[in-house]
Design a protein that fits this description.
Blueprint (H helix, E strand, L loop, with lengths): L2 E4 L7 H13 L7 E7 L7 H12 L5 E7 L8 H8 L6 E5 L8 E7 L1 H7 L8 E6 H4 L3 E7 L2 E2 L3 E2 L13 H14 L1 H4 L7 H10 L5 E9 L6 E7 L1 H15 L1 E4 L3 E7 L7 H4 L1 H4 L5 E11 L11 H5 L4 H5 L2 H4 L4 H11 L2 E4 L3 E4 L2 E6 L3 H6 L3 E2 L7 H6 L3 E4 L6 E4 L1
Parallel strand pairs: 2-3, 2-7, 3-4, 7-10, 12-20, 13-14, 13-19, 14-17, 17-18
Antiparallel strand pairs: 1-11, 5-6, 8-9, 10-11, 15-16
């Protein structure tokens, strides 16, 4: 079993964290070994300068070779300036790289999960083989060390652990596949679900094919501050499970009644709507039928840098795609999944068309014509009166939206 420090009602000081990391890595057989350290990008709150500094102190001059691989999934690559700010450092002897998910030569296939096994893991929702492809740096190191936080997550239930391999440093096919499985279950149904969800089961199955030894330093981060409530070290499965239990106490807030209108204030770490949409995912469960979510982010000027096809497809509920699958099956399934996650629950049929459960309104720097063409409502951010909405008894304002999940009791 792995070791865990901290709890939902604690905040760990830096010295305690450094001592924990040093002690855990000291006990591992890492002398002369090559180590791939997998870390999140800047869309996740995490005190990486503290953690990577501790890892560097423990491994520099001891491990034979260390690569730090930034788990982008299919997000945009980080610049050298962004990496320096995000990771801290410098870390002499550490090679820092983005996960080049768009570059076939950066990837390697570990094998295939067969269609029957996929159907079993997916509880019958999908039956198709999937090629398990990920960044070749993972298999070219003796040991892989995941360092990253655990939060409620719209695709898998709770993020973290083996999710840093799939989709974190994976090829697009398995990323799309896992996200569409989550979309079939729906974001509102799976987000914040404890235990091994069907998507988590698929990720565990894929990770078992990795030939390198897998370790994880999983973390529960105090949202908005970057301080740590807890840390757990062990296998990715053990460390993730321990932190998911604490995250469920820390990152989920419960309401007794639904809210008519939500104003989600999207922090600047989300620089497009592809990532900023978390401000919707985390509040959808508490919005009343017929209610509204306003995503307020004047700094966001585009829907997605890396996935422009979302502007053509637009945002739609799950059944819009499922009931017209022949029209949409050729698109990237991860894009379709993102579409359903931001549009939320709804219905579609050929006669009456599409009906969303709630209205999704963007008050961003994205031009009005682009927003409306993408099937979302538009509000000029300059017309948003934050004080008036905060005083409105029918409106709930969520600061630093995107990490804390809101649910009804």
């Amino acid at each position: 079993m792995g070791d865990t420090i901290g709890a939902a009602d604690q905040v760990l000081d830096d010295e305690t964290v450094r001592a924990f990391v040093a002690g855990q890595l000291r006990r591992e057989d890492l002398d002369g070994k090559s180590v791939c350290v997998i870390v999140p990008d800047a869309t996740r709150s995490c005190p990486l300068p503290l953690l990577l500094g501790a890892v560097h102190e423990a491994l520099h001059g001891r491990a034979g070779r260390v690569t730090v691989l930034v788990a982008l999934g299919t997000h945009a690559p980080m610049s050298q300036a962004q990496l320096a700010k995000h990771l801290g450092g410098p870390y002499p002897g550490f090679d820092v790289r983005n996960h080049e998910w768009w570059e076939p030569s950066a990837l390697v296939s570990l094998g295939v999960i067969g269609a029957d096994r996929v159907a079993e893991l997916a509880e019958g929702r999908m039956r198709r083989e999937v090629d398990v492809t990920l960044n070749r740096a993972v298999v070219e190191h003796d040991v892989c060390l995941v360092v990253g936080p655990v939060f409620p997550h719209e695709v898998v239930g709770f993020s973290g652990g083996n999710k840093y391999f799939f989709p974190g440093v994976a090829g697009q096919e398995i990323i799309d596949f896992s996200h569409w499985l989550g979309a079939l279950i729906t974001s509102a149904s799976i987000i914040g679900t404890r235990g091994v969800t069907p998507v988590r089961a698929l990720i565990h199955e894929a990770a078992a094919l990795i030939p390198s030894r897998r370790l994880a330093l999983c973390l529960v981060v105090q949202s908005g501050t970057g301080a740590l409530h807890a840390a757990s070290f062990g296998t990715p499965e053990e460390a993730w499970a321990a932190c998911a239990d604490i995250s469920a106490e820390t990152h989920i807030q419960y309401l007794h009644a639904p809210v008519r209108r939500i104003l989600s204030l999207i922090p600047e770490k989300y620089d497009d709507m592809w990532t900023g949409a978390k401000g919707f995912y985390k509040v959808e469960p508490i919005v009343a039928d017929g209610g509204q979510v306003i995503l307020y982010a004047p700094h966001i000027t585009r829907i997605s840098e890396m996935h422009p096809e979302i502007e053509e497809i637009g945002y739609h509920c799950r059944d819009y795609f499922v009931k017209q699958w022949d029209r949409f099956a050729h698109h990237h399934w991860g894009v379709l999944a993102h579409s359903t996650h931001l549009r939320g629950a709804g219905t579609w049929d050929e006669e009456t068309g599409e009906h969303g459960r709630v209205t999704v309104t963007l008050a961003t720097g994205i031009p009005e014509d682009v927003v409306r063409r993408a099937n979302l409502d538009y509000l000029d951010p300059a017309a948003v009166d934050l004080e008036a909405l905060a005083d409105d008894p029918e409106t709930m304002v969520i600061p630093q939206a995107g990490e804390v999940l809101f649910r009804l009791r």
